[in-house]
Amino acid sequence: MRSDRLLRDPRAWGLMLAATLTIMSNSTITPALPGLQARFADDPNAEVLTRLLITAPSLVVAIIAPFAGALTDRLGRRLPLFLGLLIYALAGTAGLYLNGLPAILASRLILGLGVAFVMTAQAALIGDYFQGAARGRLMGYQIAATNIGGLIFVTVAGYLAGLDPRWPFAIYGLAIIMFPFLWRMLPEPILAPGQTDLANPAALQAEPGWQATVAIMSAAAALTFVIFYAVPTQLPYHLRGLGITDPQKAGVAMASMMFAAALTSVVSGWIRPWLGRIGTPVTGYLLMAAGFATVAAGRSLGLEMVGMALIGGGIGMCMPTFITTALNVTPAHRRGLVSGLVTSAIFLGQFISPLASQPLVTHLGYSGAFHVGAAGYVTLAVLLVLVLKRKPRQQQPASAS
To answer: Which residue ranges does UniProt annotate as crossing the membrane (predicted)?
Structure first.
């Protein structure tokens, strides 16, 4: 693969750095949950509250992201982005010193507010800074960055949680360290609300029916994550039922998924012009369907890792497509709102997922639930083909720098 000029642009690296923070909103403190429950064992609701620490930010992001996106269209991109970084750092690290689980839960809700501002502003900046194929490739690089960040941060959090269950909260302080670098790397785009994109005036021309395309991409993102999040919420218990009780082996299986997601998300930006906006997510859905079926049928760690890698490969194909397609069809002065809508859909799917998967597990068992997930992805692939075939083909800008 030839060297990508995009990676010589400091704005691209700034956006990828900002993206690594968002993966931490849920996953960083996961290794600390048992220790936190033991630390606050005198709280009669400790078992419930510690689990809510994981899902609380997702709920807030799902509610706030569209409004945060609309604000980025009115106020510019930098103010919401850097305000979000400050909220992220202050609320994220609050678990280091707060004295009770209810207070820590409140800080996690505030953290969701920061995540909503960061995610919507940086997604809108991708649409402002880059056009055409470069935009799609950067979205792929960004998803890769979030997966690599997840691997690093969760590994470090596991080590810190072994020392003290509060210490993983310190990782959120990275937002303060990144702040001055991002301040220099991410200038305000030369684009005022309602004006043309000076780098590419044609970018303001929205695709006919762009609102419907955005709605389709948002719905697809939400449904994708309703199914996908059965992996982190149910896989450890599925492995335990297979006799694979070592938590480190569950971590290895998850790592295989994240590595595959990082790899394919990079590749997706290069092959999307050939597969198109229909073929790319459909390929991802079929990979995830194969992965869920393999996980359901597997009886060894090796097969489970193969299934997880297929799931990771599929999500790596789908994730960049949802936001890229939505941004590509949207007028420049609505990119903040649209990035907020897609972000909201993703986090809403994450929040709903345990509520949807647990009844399936109860009635069908873990293998049965994963088989249903496989069938769900095949169904989504068919529906996406049928719906998007009815819409006019998107015209990509000629620039592919």
So the answer is: 12-33, 53-72, 79-98, 104-126, 138-161, 167-186, 212-231, 251-271, 283-302, 308-329, 336-356, 368-388
